[in-house]
């Protein structure tokens, strides 16, 4: 039987099919690597909150410390999202009739909390602790981005295990004096780089982040 | 050959067109394919509960009970306790009062670490209204807060320590209580720092250590 295709077409077709196969596998790997990792899935998550609360106004413009609202982030595992009472410290008087704050006032009267949507959420099998980081000079900015310039908070880092470990293996560039942790506009003093300051602090406080599994999976 | 490359290019363009790039801001919840043990049946701080009718896992303390703040684990488990902190029965420390009168002097002895804590807490909670030096000129005066007490006034200077403590915890007039934000030991630290501010605003040259006098006079 004579062959259906000439030898030239046959070679051509084999090459094309081969190329298509290689490209398809590469594409599949590329898509999974790019789209199925937390860097795509989580970063940029910005839910619509029940109250249009702006960190840009409160933390940036007014210069409130993060601790005013996120009380005990420096001495507990959890960074509290503020109670309605905290908002009413000021909003009982400031913008007291603003329609944007209707939800807050309703919550204050009824005693039911405002239903803020949680943005950063580790899986329940991973243990994370704010105090150990904040007290040792890791700033909020390293893990949450420039919150004081955000109108609406979004997920700025991937919070994946490799991201945790990248810093635990080399924390120096992210360290600063513990008193400056909530000052997101902090710059290293003149004539020094952040890494130099970090190295000094690491040596002074003997900082040695854990890399063993049971530190975070306990 | 070109055709394969063209189809490939079109496919990439379609995928990127639909899924976009990393870091795109939007309200889409992070996609979860495998749940593993990500959501375990346990309560997280500030979490939700399907059991309690108001949907809150964290309960507010019933009236007549004392919130347990990690002061005495054995006492919490029912063991007899001699720890006065456990029941917060020490009126002087926890309420700034002895019977019905405010205590004159703080029960906490003042030292440098206490003042540092006080300065930090004052800077976080009080300075927004009362101003960094206690003159009632904090940033909120620009947004419609008026009649903010000047902490350096003789009226406040002559208050007993207990009354300042009580005002921090429970508020007064337009000021809400800050008891839910500042725990008792830190309230006393703020009291100490307010006293230091008052003193510094009403001091004479004789109070300044000799080695700093020249510097201060130059600054005037």
UniProtKB/TrEMBL annotation, chain A:
The keyword Iron-sulfur does not apply. Keywords: Membrane, Transmembrane, Transmembrane helix. The keyword Transmembrane helix applies. Residues 127-218 form the Cytochrome c7-like domain. The chain crosses the membrane at residues 15-36. It holds the Pfam family Cytochrome_C7. This is Class III cytochrome C family protein.
TrEMBL record, chain B:
GO terms for molecular function: electron transfer activity; heme binding; metal ion binding. The keyword Nucleus does not apply. Residues 113-198 form the Cytochrome c domain. The keyword Metal-binding applies. PROSITE patterns: CYTC (PS51007). SUPFAM superfamilies: Cytochrome c. It comes from the Bacteria. Gene3D superfamilies: Cytochrome c-like domain. Keywords: Heme, Iron, Metal-binding. This is Cytochrome c domain-containing protein. It comes from Kolteria novifilia. The lineage of its organism: Bacteria, Pseudomonadati, Planctomycetota, Planctomycetia, Kolteriales.
